[in-house]
Amino acid sequence: MSIATRLGKQTLKGGEIVSRILAAEGVEKVFGIIDGTYFGMYSTFGANGISLVTPRHETCALHMAGAYARVSGKLGVAIASNGPGVANALPGVAVEQAEGNRVLLITSCRREGIVYPDRGGAFQSFPQVEVISAMAKFSCLVPSADRVAELMRRALRVCYTGRPGLVHLDIPESIMNGKVDEDSSWFRRPEQYRLTQPLEPTDLQVDEVLRQLAQAKRPLIHAGSGVVHAQAAQTLADVSKVLGVPMTTSWGARAAVDERSDLIVPMISVDAVDAARSQADW
Q1: Domains detected in the chain
Q2: Which of 89, 142, 163, 226 is most exposed, with minimal Cβ within 10 Å?
Q3: How do residues 26-47 score in pLDDT, each as one tens digit?
Q4: Cβ–Cβ under 8 Å, residues 101 and 165
Q5: Does 219 have pLDDT greater than 70?
Q6: pLDDT, tens digit, for every residue of 143-193?
Q7: Which pTM was predicted?
Q8: Nearest residue to 12 (alpha-carbon basis) of 32, 45, 40
């Protein structure tokens, strides 16, 4: 019998901390290729209402997570295993960050004590945090089991702040699969550590928009992917209809509008869309 059991403390694996926080965030799908470094997390997915969707390549996992985030409005989560798996994920990291998709990438790395810094000879290892940090909003090593929850919250706070993008946590396999005494403070509601509702514009900002629209000689709405992330497609269509203002979209927001509408300049007329965007003065 362990000391923790004798003292009446509950133990859990580091991976369970991750899956319980994901469940609290409303995550239902995780995309990636599983291996032994993730068993501490994967083994608790079912109990937390999460299923694993397995593609044939890690880059696809990142794109699937990005698409899930765009369509559902929820957090997209992908996993990639240390070394080659993480290397395969890098093209997806670059694209999902550039597209502004809200994605959390969880990677595994070799056990504590032989990486960061590399002791030499670690199997299939490279400095994953350093490489990904150049492409992501946030990239961090989880140095100990008692910091898993803290750094998960920090990554999610960054992910939901400002323009959406990709955040990354690198978790050693010894932490993911190792046991630790549970601390009840690890598990909090999302609203206790990040914004869960969009910031509303101030009255001054609304007045300025109305003033600009009233003075515009040829008003046109150019919608970006923020409309998709905000699940605001219907609101956008209503505004365009009420004002009688035509719309164009970026490539990222193309799915947000019905291009059959008389008020839409469809993306097939890409030269006209580009010209409208280039000539816009506000």
Answers
A1: 3-192 (3.40.50.970), 203-279 (3.40.50.1220)
A2: 163
A3: 999 999 999 988 999 999 999 9
A4: yes
A5: yes
A6: 999 999 999 999 999 999 989 999 999 999 999 999 999 988 999 999 999
A7: 0.85
A8: 40
**CA separation for the pair 273, 34 (Å, rounded):** 43
Which residues, other chains included, contact 245 with Cβ-Cβ below 8 Å and sequence gap of 6+?
213, 219, 220, 221, 239, 263
Pairing of strands 51-53, 221-223: unpaired
Q: List residues bridging with 171 in a β-sheet.
A: 108
Q: Is 109 strand, coil or helix? A: strand
Check residues 240 and 64 and name the one with the higher pLDDT.
Answer: 64
Provide the H-helix boundaries in the chain: 3-6, 14-24, 39-42, 58-72, 84-99, 128-133, 148-159, 173-177, 203-215, 226-229, 233-243, 270-279
Output the CA–CA distances (angstroms, integers) from residue 82 to 55, 92, 212, in the order listed.
17, 16, 52
